[in-house]
Write a structure and sequence with these properties.
heterodimer; A: 212 residues; alpha+beta; five-stranded antiparallel β-sheet; 6 helices; B: 219 residues; 76% helix
Chain lengths: 212, 219
């Protein structure tokens, strides 16, 4: 229970005035206060047995945080509130990264299918090679795989053709005749390929789909 | 949640970097030698740090392997492509234009076709709201690849854009040069004719103006 002492009594307790200076009706209160104060000063310290101390410490150790829980607490302890908005953003970013990581590399067929839905244009490749028994086309659009995209022979006049959906951008390519001879497209511009040959070029414009 | 969010962002960035690196390796392993895989992976990391696309590096390595080139030749070709991408990006960015993957690839192609970094910057500078950077660079690169001289290539693109040529017609310029070349006209002559036509389109019509000013019968 809390008791409020008269300010004059407090001055007595603080040694600022003598008890004799108090009005008679406060002297009794001052005696009570002084007695309580002396009792508190003279109180003996409580000593606990060693067994109590051991039991308490054992329970504290049982409840001690593991390194993992301490680490989690360190990570999740609230700090500056404005950073809380970063959590869903960061979680979304990690989710996107995981989705990206779990996606296997696209095959040529998948890439073609995807480009059919994006900015893409159907491009027809043609080569006149009357003596060829097999013609394929390889380029940046099929990872330069010489076997991925065969051309089809049209009748018996020696014309070979294939139509591909190409995404926007510039693509370099070459024809492979009979699996070994690289041939540039005579109907397209060409640039040095860095390997002593030339690559044909087709450009697909994303705005209006025109081919350069 | 400050520390947790920071950790998640850092982990996300690491996962992204590892995924990109693994993607480059996955596309190359089994097609090129381990030394080339290592070189391309290293260059791809540098490319990403510089904001350059890494796909052309992988493509060039795959192209070399498909053509049976020796590993050292493939390595040299990939390094050349890296250099062209870097120069193209620098040239495009020097004009104050943001350089995305397609713009940089178009610029690198133009360099490979024979243009210089100054040419690429000059062409990129012509881009406006209706003529995107990628389109003007593609046109410039294609013209150069057809054998149109450097100065004429830049001049033709500049004149065409300045004259307000619609985008569809601009991107059709190389096809016009090609058609002329098929008819026996040298690419330089064909380009010169197209440039004159563009300049004439850009110039005001003096006949129409004088008529409007000097018609005395007009009330």
């Amino acid at each position: 229970m809390k008791r409020e002492w008269n300010p004059l009594v407090k001055q007595v307790l603080d040694g600022e005035r003598g008890i004799e200076s108090l009005p008679p009706d406060l002297r009794l209160e001052a005696e009570d206060a002084r007695r309580l104060l002396l009792d508190a000063i003279e109180r003996q310290a409580v000593s606990l047995s060693d067994s109590v101390d051991a039991r308490v410490m054992a329970r504290v150790r049982r409840r001690a945080a593991t390194p993992w829980s301490r680490a989690w607490h360190w990570l999740s302890a609230p700090t500056v509130p404005r950073w809380v908005v970063m959590v869903p953003i960061a979680a979304a970013a990690v989710l996107l990264m995981l989705m990206r990581t779990s996606t296997p590399p696209a095959t040529v067929e998948q890439r073609t299918a995807l480009t059919g839905q994006r900015d893409s244009v159907y491009v027809r490749f043609e080569l006149y090679a009357p003596r060829a028994s097999r013609v394929t086309v390889a380029g940046t659009f099929n990872r330069w795989d010489p076997t991925a995209t065969p051309l089809v022979r049209l009748g018996s006049d020696g014309m070979w053709t294939v139509t591909l959906a190409l995404p926007s951008g510039q693509h370099q390519y070459g024809f492979i005749v009979d699996g070994r001879n690289w041939v540039t497209d005579p109907a397209a511009p060409a640039v040095d390929d860095g390997f002593g040959r030339r690559n044909s070029v087709v450009s697909v414009n994303p705005i209006n789909g025109r081919i350069l | 949640m400050k520390r947790l969010s920071v950790c998640l962002v850092v982990l996300g960035g690491l996962a992204h970097g590892l995924a990109a690196q693994g993607d480059v390796r996955a596309r190359l392993v089994g097609r090129v030698s381990p030394e080339v895989v290592q070189l391309v992976s290293t260059l791809a990391d540098s490319a990403r740090r510089l904001g350059l696309p890494d796909a052309p590096l992988v493509d060039k390595a795959l192209e070399g392997a498909a053509k049976g080139a020796a590993p050292d030749r493939i390595a040299a070709a990939v390094q050349t492509v890296f250099g062209q991408l870097n120069v193209a990006a620098t040239a495009i960015r020097s004009t104050g234009t943001s350089a995305g993957a397609q713009e940089i690839e178009a610029g690198a192609f133009a360099l490979g076709a024979g243009l210089t970094s100054d040419d690429v910057a000059a062409i990129a500078r012509t881009a406006d709201g209706t003529h995107p950077t990628m389109a003007v660079l593609q046109v410039g690169g294609a013209l150069a690849a057809m054998g149109v001289p450097r100065g004429q290539t830049v001049g033709l693109v500049q004149s065409a854009v300045r004259s307000g040529l619609p985008l569809g017609d601009l991107t059709n310029l190389p096809a016009q040069v090609q058609a002329a070349a098929a008819g026996g006209v040298p690419p330089a002559a064909a380009a010169a004719g197209l440039e004159r036509a563009a300049e004439a389109r850009a110039a005001p019509n003096p006949h129409a103006n004088s008529k409007a000013k000097t018609n005395p019968h007009r009330p």
